[in-house]
Design brief:
Helix content is 54%, strand content 0%. With 223 residues, it is an all-alpha fold. The longest helix has 17 residues.
Length: 223
């Protein structure tokens, strides 16, 4: 996305997040990141891996701007979750390629307040209801549109499916959402838990609350 990198050179390194700040962001936002990943993968262990891998990729790559660190973390986590669910997502493509969306409003992402409210709803919904009523393609499109403001074309590129399929899946997901399938105050007992339960101060060792052990990353010094 355009805000990931700056075209101005040289860039003041003080504006970029340090490795310590990157790990702290993934730790502090572990609940949100874990739930975003789980909505796409539908599997706790895979969501675990997606968040851990997103942290590792961020540490290995270009340091994100400090002010955009959370957006970076969300985007990296979603991309990692999609990579784990590629096959399941692609299987759904054919079902939506010929579906036409008659709702002009579905192409609008709404303002920040509307999008945040919708995101809060899907993150706080009963997990089993989401998994049984929305397929992997619809869930991925919904997360991309609400969490990181992806356009229809961006969704198609990220998911490696046709634009027509994204339009159809988006229509189905938004109809599902607007018809009140997801309501505030529902039981959240199945909410995705955190893959970053324990953070070691001198490494990027991230511990899974489900497995009780460190997962996914080799010990990586960040000092």
């Amino acid at each position: 996305m355009s805000w990931f990198y700056s075209s101005t050179a040289p860039v003041d390194a003080r504006n970029h997040a340090s490795p310590v700040e990157v790990v702290a962001c993934f730790h502090d936002q572990r609940n949100v990141l874990g739930r975003l990943a789980f909505l796409i993968t539908g599997d706790h262990a895979t969501a675990d891996q997606a968040v851990v891998q997103a942290c590792e990729i961020t540490l290995q790559g270009n340091s994100p701007f400090r002010d955009w660190l959370l957006e970076w973390a969300k985007t990296a986590t979603i991309a990692s979750a999609i990579s784990h669910g590629t096959e399941a997502i692609r299987v759904c493509e054919a079902a939506y390629e010929d579906r036409r969306c008659p709702h002009v409003e579905h192409l609008s992402q709404g303002d920040d307040e509307e999008r945040a409210a919708s995101l809060d709803l899907i993150l706080g919904a009963v997990t089993q209801k989401l998994l049984t009523e929305l397929d992997p393609l619809c869930r991925a499109v919904l997360v991309l549109r609400l969490a990181i403001r992806s356009s229809i074309q961006d969704c198609a590129l990220r998911l490696n499916v046709s634009r027509a399929a994204v339009l159809g899946a988006n229509c189905h997901a938004m109809t599902w959402l607007h018809d009140g399938h997801v309501k505030p105050g529902e039981d959240e007992s199945h909410r995705c838990a955190c893959p970053l339960d324990t953070l070691q101060s001198d490494s990027c060792a991230l511990t899974s609350p489900w497995s009780g052990g460190t997962i996914g990353l080799e010990d990586r010094r960040i000092s």
